[in-house]
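Forum: Protein Structure Q&A
Topic: Joint prediction for protein chains with partners

I've read a bunch of threads here and the consensus seems to be that you should model interacting components together rather than docking separate models afterwards. I'd like to see that in practice. Below is the full input, 562 residues plus whatever partners are listed. Could one of the regulars post the assembled result?
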Amino acid sequence: MGEFITVKDMCHTYFAHEGEEVQALDHINISIHEGEFVAIIGTNGSGKSTLAKHFNALLTPNSGQCIVNGLDTLDPENTWEIRQSVGMVFQNPDNQIVATLVEEDVAFGPENLGVEPAEIRKRVAEALQDVGMEEYRQHSPHLLSGGQKQRVAIAGVLAMCSNCLVLDEPTAMLDPQGRQEVLSTVLRLHREQKITVVYITHFMEEAVAADRVIVMEQGKVVMEGTPQEVFSQVNHLKELGLDVPVAAELSYRLRQLNLIIPEKIITDEELVVAVCP
Amino acid sequence: MSINLQNVTYVYMSKTPFEKVAIKNINIEIKQGEFVGIIGHTGSGKSTLVQHLNGLLKPTSGTVTIGEQNIHSKGQAARQAKSRVGMVFQYPEHQLFEETVYEDIAFGPRNLGIPEDEIDSRVKKALNFVGLDFEKYAQRTPFQLSGGQMRRVAIAGVIALEPEYLILDEPSAGLDPRGRDEIFGQIINLYEATGMTVVLVSHNMEDVAKMANRLLVMKDGEISLDGTPKDIFQNYQVELKQAGVDAPPLTLLMNKFKQRGLDVDNTVIATDAAADSIFDAVRRC
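Posted by a regular:
Agreed with the consensus. Here's the joint model:
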């Protein structure tokens, strides 16, 4: 697997009120491989969203480098190509829907890229099918549920033929069912179409589904590894103010009671089997 | 004094092709001192229901009374009754608008015609309740605070109105786990300190299970379940699933142990109690 995004020693500084500097990203070094599903977790203000915005050149580094698909985000010549290959989905579905019909909304991206109308039709139909929204193509987006709106937003990215999907807390405003719809859509696209996924979330049960979890704190990457490696460090995550999946927390407490439970349990099923073999 | 909804039905966009019955024939009494959790699928009518509690929406049919007062009758008494109910909307920080935190919180009480020195003490009290230091934050602009802090300022603005009923629509959406725990901790403190009636709409079953003493489950515009969280999460899992919601993750996990034949207590709501229960059950077998 090649590297799709490479971040080298990257810093980003905001200027807050009265000229006060806020270092949102502090010497970040990470790489995201082609076809990988990476979850990023961290408290509010830890720099997750700032980092994500570098992945499609909405922000550029103050120092260091962000290379996306072989292109340096600092070079303005590359901006459009980067944005075409990396699509973003944000938290609030209502802030990213522009058209009055679902299919027009999905067509908005490719239209702006100057794609041929026949090709746009084909892409829109495919994209809506990929997210399971084809029967809503003639519907008005504002009457859809939150989970449906987010899936339309994902279809909009697919229609641009992007090969990387960056989602910034896509489920924060959704009910449990909507969350499930969005997560399983993303997982399926990742599996079937090998799309590279960067998924920012506060819901640890979503992060468990990723290949790799990156934990951020105060602009730095403080932990990195498989979900098993990261979520078995219950104490460390709690200190950072983060949750762990309920099975991980419970197995941690059971170990404290001297019950013999293997390390690295993060799902209900693993725990139940470990306790009642 | 309680809030009473009698046969309340609300229809959106009546007499258009988009006509939709949002809630139908709701009969509930919310008693003083209750902590009511409302859960349900998106579109089940939760937000429509709570907007009836302070007269933001007028029922298509049916009546809403606070105490003896019908809140949709004309005159001073109805207005006063409505002002007893404070409402914190989803993403309340989007409604911040003043130049300083102090002014934003003072806006509501000032509109009620409360004298300045009283306003001052209310602002202090409200900031204290949401855990923000008065000296440090009162004169800052609200727009450069973190998301969690902005949310707290917005909640303080409603608390400063000193409502008898506090309605919160998804107060933890988008906050990190620590921010969420802080906000809920403060709501619990406020509830315990003032005896204020709290109505909480949430998608987070775990929090509802921990805090509410009464739970309403909404489905297709109707209240499908009404009882204690313990009873509902334990005994009505099929109905919960039908309503598009689920029991808290810990309850689901404990149920899996039970299905596997381990005699654990599936009514626990805290992980340490769950660990004890599993430990005891394992030792017994």
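Chain A has a mean pLDDT of 91.
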